[in-house]
């Protein structure tokens, strides 16, 4: 346990394990020329029914080798996939067509498959290496304070004062919006105020006493029993507050953006490469958020590691942190065996790298955790925990969603 705690502190606070072949300049944020994604035309669509179950409906997932063997998509195909739906708080929906400017099409990157491994059946592989973050000093500070919980049961990450990045399947199953996403809310962790809890308890007691004077003797006796039970409940609640137990501050979502690459409807299956969505909050928060970054290749990951925090369902609203090495990659996906359970999907995968031409190090979001998937690798079914990489095109699209067409997103 002490050894695991050492590595947790080691990776959490950004220390790098550097051997003779890994120098500091190898771990810098990549300078990428970002193409521009601009809105072309917006159409009104019929309102969705919000009737789907909260699970993904995917065609068989293209294996790692597909990304190296299939022809690269054309510009028109990319523009179609990057066009997006927006569903608003009142249930209305639009489709926005986009144009991509300044993109140089390159051959699809070949995969670097590292050999087959034994079939696994769970999202927690072997020894559970997750850490529950319980200390309020960590919960309320960067980077852990950027993790949020969705009312649909997923996780997300703050990427601006008003925006949350999450997985598309947390609100849409690939064909229809899921139940509960119409009145979608985002929960931000906060430490409960002990004094406020006491004031609330006092006001409730005053109301009971005010109404008890006009009741019959029997009613007053019953009221006293209920009041004593209420006091015991409040006492227990006050104890939890004194221990610094966190709670969620829930904020309604104003609108949700989902790429058309995911929202295929009846014309085809959702593409795992586009399993990401952006939520705009009705009310801005005051927490420090995490900026977006372009996902580097495996060779440019410090120690080959990635990190993410989310609200795994088996840990009762605790924030759970984990890190692990990436096993493989394609042009759009990271394949890894980070221990994670349902509820953590939608978490922001991040790195801490050095800013080019600067001395400071910075954490940025480089992928969205999508969850457990079976994929075909050279004809063999293998399972991974998969994350969707933020490529230059996706960076440009998310930047458009956050800032609008006037945004300068030319450098990632």
From TrEMBL:
GO terms for biological process: proteolysis. One of its GO terms (cellular component) is extracellular region. The keyword Protease applies. Residues 192-207 have a biased composition (Basic residues). Pfam families: Trypsin (PF00089). The keyword Isomerase does not apply. InterPro entries: Glutamyl_endopeptidase (IPR050966), Peptidase_S1_PA (IPR009003), Peptidase_S1_PA_chymotrypsin (IPR043504), Trypsin_dom (IPR001254), TRYPSIN_HIS (IPR018114). It is found in: Secreted. Gene3D superfamilies: Trypsin-like serine proteases. One of its GO terms (molecular function) is serine-type endopeptidase activity. Residues 140-198 form the Peptidase S1 domain. Keywords: Disulfide bond, Glycoprotein, Hydrolase, Protease, Secreted, Serine protease homolog, Signal. Residues 1-20 form the signal peptide. Its main location: secreted. Belongs to the peptidase S1 family. This is Inactive serine protease 35.
């Amino acid at each position: 346990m002490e050894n695991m705690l050492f590595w947790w502190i080691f990776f959490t606070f950004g220390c790098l394990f550097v051997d003779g072949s890994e120098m500091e300049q190898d771990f810098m944020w990549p300078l990428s020329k970002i193409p521009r994604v601009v809105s072309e035309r917006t159409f009104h669509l019929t309102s969705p029914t919000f009737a789907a179950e909260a699970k993904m409906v995917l065609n068989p997932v293209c294996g790692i080798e597909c990304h190296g063997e299939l022809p690269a998509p054309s510009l028109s195909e990319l523009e179609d996939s990057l066009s997006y739906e927006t569903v608003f708080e009142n249930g209305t929906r639009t489709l926005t067509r986009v144009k991509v400017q300044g993109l140089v099409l390159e051959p699809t990157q070949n995969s670097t498959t590292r050999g087959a491994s034994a079939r696994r059946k769970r999202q927690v592989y072997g020894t559970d290496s997750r850490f529950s973050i319980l200390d309020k000093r960590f919960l309320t500070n960067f980077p852990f304070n950027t993790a949020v919980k969705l009312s649909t049961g997923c996780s997300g990450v703050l990427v601006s004062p008003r925006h949350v990045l999450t997985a598309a399947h947390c609100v849409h199953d690939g064909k229809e919006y899921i139940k509960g996403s119409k009145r979608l809310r985002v929960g931000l962790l906060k430490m409960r105020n002990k004094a406020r809890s006491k004031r609330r308890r006092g006001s409730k007691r005053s109301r009971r006493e005010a109404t008890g004077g006009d009741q019959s003797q029997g009613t007053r006796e019953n009221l006293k029993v209920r009041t004593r039970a209420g006091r015991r409940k409040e006492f227990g609640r006050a104890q939890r507050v004194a221990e610094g137990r966190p709670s969620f501050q829930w904020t309604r979502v104003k609108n949700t953006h989902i790429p058309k690459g995911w929202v295929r409807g009846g014309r085809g299956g959702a593409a795992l490469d586009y399993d990401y969505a952006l939520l705009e909050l009705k009310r801005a928060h005051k927490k420090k958020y995490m900026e977006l970054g372009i996902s580097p290749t495996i060779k440019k990951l410090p120690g080959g590691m990635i990190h993410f925090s989310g609200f795994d369902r088996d840990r009762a609203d605790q924030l759970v942190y984990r890190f692990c090495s990436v096993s493989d990659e394609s042009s759009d996906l990271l394949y890894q065996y980070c221990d994670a359970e349902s509820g953590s999907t939608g978490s922001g995968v991040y790195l801490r790298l050095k800013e080019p031409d600067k001395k400071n190090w910075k954490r940025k979001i480089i992928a969205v955790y999508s969850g457990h998937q079976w994929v075909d690798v050279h004809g063999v079914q293998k399972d991974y925990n998969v994350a969707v990489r933020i490529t230059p095109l996706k960076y440009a699209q998310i930047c458009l969603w956050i800032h609008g067409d006037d945004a300068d997103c030319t450098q990632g």
